[in-house]
Design goal:
- The protein has 385 residues and is mainly alpha-helical.
- It folds into two domains: 209 residues, no CATH class; 147 residues, no CATH class.
- 72% of the residues lie in helices and 0% in strands.
- The protein contains 19 helices and no strands.
- α1 packs across α6 and α12 runs antiparallel to α15.
- The radius of gyration is 23 Å and the shape is globular.
- The protein starts with 6 loop residues before the first helix and ends with a helix.
- About 4% of the residues have low confidence.
Length: 385
């Protein structure tokens, strides 16, 4: 039996390992900025808008891995195992990205790995969207489409395009993680093909429903279409503000490491260990993205909707004081506050060994409060940024 070669790893990975070791922060920072810049597209409720991936966006991957497109192309051409029809494997950006993903996987750099996976996701999505939508979808038809999807559709379950893509890509990586570590040329090919195929299916399934609805003339009336008393809502209403700010805060939190200044402040305010709090937050941010979104929404719901404060008040001391006051209410029957505390307890039970070992009730409460304050301060800081 012919042994499958490992040309990509043998000829490209060593340079990636040497270069990315000192440039991983450059790559991570660029991906965070790219995600933030495309916030409106990525955190839309549906695949409505184009995502553009420029030559500059590709160049950062080559720079940080130390790999040049011509060098990768040379390895591809010299590899007899690669069929010329495997176009996906012949793209230098895909190969460079997989080398970076392999590096972060082997070195257990979880946040950097997640961002690198999402960056390859963005690259694939940009072309997949154009493949299924020659022209950007009509928002009214797409709104009707997503509104009427069943819960078997991931985008319906998650509520945003970003979360649907993230779950799709991360599950694919988990499935093929052994391939990316062993990484002979066939395993590398299977990883990339599976990665793109799953994203392709995600968009294709929505596109099928979209075009069916378009052909039937089905669409959802929006504020601009319907000005009746029962249907008219201003675009800038409280619900929209909560959704917009929640997405902005979430993307900043999950795409960055724990904010050192905020974790120090939160821990000291509650008299608990900074290191234990930081470790717990790192695990929470890594594992609980969808729950973090719910917590942010609940805090903003209490402040903006239920208490009818203005958005501009989030930047003041009053916001932090208000959040602390509602948190320390004892014997509250407010379902929103109860849910906030449930989430915090669940996170710490699952993500903090120190919390699980602590028996003193006061210490447990202080750890939980420190985590809460961290997210309150994060909301304020990101709102002001």
């Amino acid at each position: 039996m012919t042994q499958i070669p490992k040309d990509f790893v043998n000829k490209l990975y060593k340079l990636t390992e040497l270069t990315l070791g000192s440039k991983s922060k450059n790559l991570n920072d660029y991906i965070v900025k790219y995600t933030d810049k495309n916030n409106e597209t990525l955190f839309d409720l549906a695949p409505n808008k184009r995502l553009f991936f420029t030559e500059q966006d590709k160049a950062i991957m080559f720079f940080c891995t130390g790999l040049q497109p011509a060098e990768i192309t040379k390895v591809i051409k010299e590899n007899d195992f690669i069929d010329s029809s495997w176009q996906i494997l012949s793209n230098p950006f895909n190969i460079a990205s997989v080398m970076a993903i392999r590096y972060f996987t082997i070195n257990k750099k979880h946040k950097e790995l997640e961002n690198a996976i999402m960056y390859l996701t963005y690259f694939f999505y940009a072309s997949i969207h154009f493949k299924y939508f020659k022209y950007e979808p009509q928002p009214n038809i797409m709104a009707y489409t997503v509104n009427n999807l069943s819960n078997k559709y991931l985008i319906k379950q998650t509520g945003t395009l970003f979360e649907a893509m993230k779950i799709t890509s991360m599950k694919c990586h988990e499935t093929y993680e052994k391939n990316i570590i062993s990484c002979n040329d066939l395993e590398l090919k299977n990883y990339i093909v599976a990665f793109r195929s799953r994203l392709d299916s995600l968009v294709q399934n929505i596109a099928k429903e979209y075009y069916n609805n378009r052909d039937q003339g089905l669409y959802l009336n929006t504020e601009e279409d319907n000005y009746s008393d029962t249907n008219y809502h201003l675009n800038d209403n409280t619900s929209f503000q909560i959704t917009e700010l929640t997405n902005k805060v979430l993307i900043k939190i999950v795409s960055k490491n724990v904010d050192t200044h905020l974790v120090n402040l939160s821990a000291k305010m509650c008299g608990v260990s900074v290191n234990v709090t930081r470790t717990a937050l790192s695990e929470i941010i890594r594992k609980k993205n969808s729950d973090i979104k719910e917590l942010i929404e609940l805090i903003l719901q209490l402040f903006l909707a239920e208490s009818k404060n203005g958005l501009e008040n989030i930047g003041s001391k009053y916001f932090v004081n208000y959040c602390l006051e509602i948190y320390i209410k004892s014997n509250t029957t407010d379902k929103t506050i109860i849910r906030i505390k449930e989430l915090l307890d669940q996170w710490l039970s699952e993500c903090s060994e120190n919390y699980r070992k602590t028996e003193r009730l006061a210490t447990l409460n202080n750890f939980r409060k420190a985590i809460y304050i961290y997210f309150v301060l994060s909301i304020q800081q990101i709102y002001l940024s």
